[in-house]
């Protein structure tokens, strides 16, 4: 009697079907992961603006209340990165970071709000927020999750 070695057509079709199911599950998760990585770059690009706000607040008598874009000394070069369109500092030190070309449904806009307890020499705490429609693309600190306290930095 002849012995056949190898797989039957049915076995090969089952393996291909299983691989197809795994790819169908993994591909959307991977795409979301790449968008989150691009948005995370925006958080990293915001660090110098946070530092500028903190240093300006510590050097002014009114603390955060006296911080503006003009006196912070922070300037964001428009083409410094592929995924961040702008970083602006509003009065009071609030930082708005606008992303671009992240690949998601919409490009998230992250808002970093500083708070300072007591005196102008107190440490600055940052709260990050983002619109609800882009929540799955932003870092955990910006998801506005009431269970986690909204996220601080």
TrEMBL record:
Compositionally biased region (Polar residues): 110-123
Keywords annotated in UniProt: Fimbrium, Membrane, Methylation, Transmembrane, Transmembrane helix
One biological process term in Gene Ontology: cell adhesion
Annotated segments matching region Disordered: 98-123
GO cellular component term, pick one: pilus
Listed transmembrane segments: 12-30
Family: Belongs to the N-Me-Phe pilin family.
This protein's name: Pilin
Record organism: Luteimonas wenzhouensis
